[in-house]
């Protein structure tokens, strides 16, 4: 009796988890596609696109296997649950690839930005411009609530362009890594729940016979 009760608890826990997994896949897929189509707003470089494309694939696969997991848990189908578990293993491997690719391309993307814009963004501090006549208008500080410095009676941003760009690049990379890390936790939990339910289905089928 207690095994039947435990089986039902695990069944509905896995169903609820896979429903959240399904929704999470939609969120990952939507956010990744949004970042790809608005890469200029996120200061995305070509080196980060492979990791982003892989994240899009992960989001789509998460959505599909979340649906399979829901069906397998609700119908108590071992074949669907095993397929769901295998899919989670593949997704975990893909996430590890995203993490490794993101860590590698993050450094390469920063180096590319430095090499491409070294001449234009050579000044690293506001004082390195020398005088206000050579400071471009894009450096004018229009928002006084932000860090501004006075140079020859002109208010300019104290944060250099290169530092600002590299900060944006770090934020984008951290967002991708955060999504991958959160997805990894969900995948591991899903693997645990699915294994428990697969074993429960096996024991319940033996007791039936």
UniProtKB/TrEMBL annotation:
Keyword terms of this UniProt record: Membrane, Transmembrane, Transmembrane helix
Upper lineage: Eukaryota, Metazoa, Chordata, Craniata, Vertebrata
Keyword Membrane among UniProt keywords: yes
Subcellular location: Membrane
Protein name as catalogued: Tetraspanin
Family assignment from sequence similarity: Belongs to the tetraspanin (TM4SF) family.
GO cellular component assignments: plasma membrane
Protein topology in the membrane: Multi-pass membrane protein
Transmembrane portions of the chain: 12-34, 54-74, 81-104, 176-198
PROSITE patterns: TM4_1
Xref: Pfam families: Tetraspanin (PF00335)
């Amino acid at each position: 009796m207690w095994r039947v009760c435990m089986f039902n608890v695990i069944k509905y826990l896995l169903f609820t988890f896979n429903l959240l997994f399904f929704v999470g896949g939609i969120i990952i897929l939507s956010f990744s596609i949004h970042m790809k189509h608005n890469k200029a707003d996120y200061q995305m470089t070509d080196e980060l696109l492979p990791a982003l494309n892989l994240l899009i694939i992960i989001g789509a696969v998460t959505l599909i296997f979340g649906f399979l997991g829901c069906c397998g848990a609700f119908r108590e189908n071992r074949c669907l649950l095993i397929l769901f578990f295998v899919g989670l293993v593949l997704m975990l491997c893909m996430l590890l690839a995203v993490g490794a690719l993101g860590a590698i391309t993050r450094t390469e993307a920063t180096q590319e930005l430095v090499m491409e814009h070294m001449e234009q963004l050579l000044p690293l501090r506001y004082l390195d411009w020398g005088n206000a006549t050579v400071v471009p208008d894009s450096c004018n500080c229009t928002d006084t609530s932000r860090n501004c410095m006075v140079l020859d009676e002109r208010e300019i941003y104290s944060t250099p362009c290169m530092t600002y760009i590299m900060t944006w690049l770090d934020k984008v990379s951290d967002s991708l890594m955060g999504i991958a890390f959160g997805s990894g936790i969900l995948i591991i939990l899903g693997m645990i729940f699915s294994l428990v339910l697969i074993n429960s289905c096996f024991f319940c089928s033996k007791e039936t016979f």
